[in-house]
Amino acid sequence: MDEMNCLTVRRIISTNVRDDSEAFAQHLLDCPSCKSYYDKQQKFNSTLKKALEIDVPEGLAERVLLEVNLSKKKSRKENVRWLAVAASVLVVFIVFTTTTLHSPPALANAILEHVKYDVAAFDIRTDISLDELNKLLKPHGVRADAGIGDATSAGICVINGKQGAHVVFEGKNSPVTMIITPQHLKVNESVIIDDKQYKGMLLGTKKGTLAVISEDQESLSQFETKMRKHLMTFI
Amino acid sequence: MKDSQEEHGHISMDSKEQGFESMVHAYSKDLYRFGYWLSRDSAIAEDLVQETFLRAWRAIDSLQDTKAAKSWLFTILRRENARRFEKKSAQAELTTLDDELVDILASVDDDFANIDTLAIREALRKLPANYAEPLVLQVIGGYSCDEIAEIIDAKPGAVMTRVFRARQKLRKLLEEEEDQKVAL
Predict the structure, then answer these.
(1) Would you say the ipTM is above 0.85?
(2) Which residues of chain A are within 8 Å of residue B117 when distances are taken between CB atoms?
(3) Which of B40, B163, B167, B171 is the mutation pick for testing A, counting most A CBs within 10 A?
(4) Closest CA of chain A from B48, distance in Å
(5) What predicted TM-score, i.e. pTM, was given to this entire model?
(6) Other residues' Cβ atoms within 10 Å of the Cβ of residue B85
């Protein structure tokens, strides 16, 4: 067994490094000075531990778990949103490829079904900048300025193999959905949508059809006014 | 009978959530204390614990060994705290301890064992963060110098130096406080 000198032993004691070696124990037995130093350090360590163990706020673990659960739900909601978008894309694709595409009522019904199916996206806020919005609208010959209001979510709908734009705006009382279809789904005359749940209209633009739909007439009327002022289309 | 998923080495969502919940109950207090002594602020400490567990949950699949959970959480909290600041050159002076130990040998008759916790807390609050950090990990976390070295990404020798100096600084601060009391 290698012997330890006082310097080594005190280095170990001072840094509170655990040493289970026989040499360390033996030195403490043989050296009263180091043993006294060791005892004082042990006492100090116990006081230090008490001092560091400050009170922890009541219910900390419960709040942490609540926060993590909320985050899980949010994440699931995000997934639902993307699933809803994917599903809506599929629905639009199927509907538009299997219905008479140029018939205004058929188009109105297809868009209504699409909006109803996509309802999960309405309460998810995904901040869309004006630049992002205009990038989405540009291929359809539409441009918005800031006065159009906040888009809470936006995405691309694939309609009959071609891309359409799907944007949800914050309405006065209820969200307003705007869908712009590609050119080959263009309506030549305005169509009013009025079913039990949704109200809206289809408008022909130079490059396709612009549909606006909402559950609330007031939100829809307000958006229409905004649209005419702040949406540069070729209606 | 064992769950078939477990037999294939996969952990089911339920057992993952239960394991995570146990981790929160087992370690949130120690993490809070670590966060408090890093930030010296109870609100920040709670935020650090929240953020640590949020990140831990998102990355729970990367935790291979549940025995390493505690160190993993301490590491996350430390990184979260570091995000609050710009990275500083935190490399402490790494000289040998022998010279300073010689001084200690001459002052064996200290009486710090009688110092009360409030005085220590006051002194700890004045301790620079890079000294307090390994000391708190040692005392609260119960880690060895090697383990602390892994958590704070330093060499074990550097950790030992910092722990030693932390204790020295603490003693000095307490001494000053005692002197002030005597002077009053």
Answers:
(1) no
(2) 47, 50-51
(3) B167
(4) 10
(5) 0.53
(6) 9
Determine the Cα–Cα distance for residues B54 and A72; give it in Å rounded to an integer: 9
Spell out the per-residue pLDDT of chain B, length 184, in tens: 344 444 444 445 567 788 899 999 999 999 999 999 888 888 999 999 999 999 999 888 888 777 889 999 999 999 888 887 744 444 333 334 444 444 444 444 444 445 677 888 888 888 888 888 999 999 888 888 888 998 988 888 888 888 888 888 888 887 777 677 666 5
Tell me whether residues A68 and B24 touch, CB distance under 8 A: yes
Contact A184, A101 (CB under 8 A): yes
Using the beta-carbon criterion (under 8 Å), do B42 and A50 form an inter-chain contact?
no
Contact between A208 and A137 (Cβ < 8 Å): no
Residue A65: which region, alpha, beta or left (left: phi > 0; alpha: psi -120 to 50)? alpha
The residue ranges of DSSP E strands in chain A, in sequence order, are: 143-144, 151-159, 162-169, 176-181, 191-194, 199-205, 208-214, 231-232
In B108-167, the residues whose Cβ lies within 8 Å of chain A are 108, 110-113, 115-118, 120-121, 124, 136, 138-140, 144-145, 160, 163-164, 167
Per-state percent for chain A, helix, strand, coil, to nearest 5: 55, 20, 25
Task: Name the residue among A176, A180, A170 with its Cα closest to residue A214.
Answer: A176
Residue B53 touches chain A, beta carbons under 8 Å? yes
User: For the residues of A112-158, what is the DSSP string, one character each?
Assistant: HHHHHHGGGGTT----B-HHHHHHHHGGGT-EE-GGG--EEEEEEEE
- B43 close to A (CB below 8 A): no
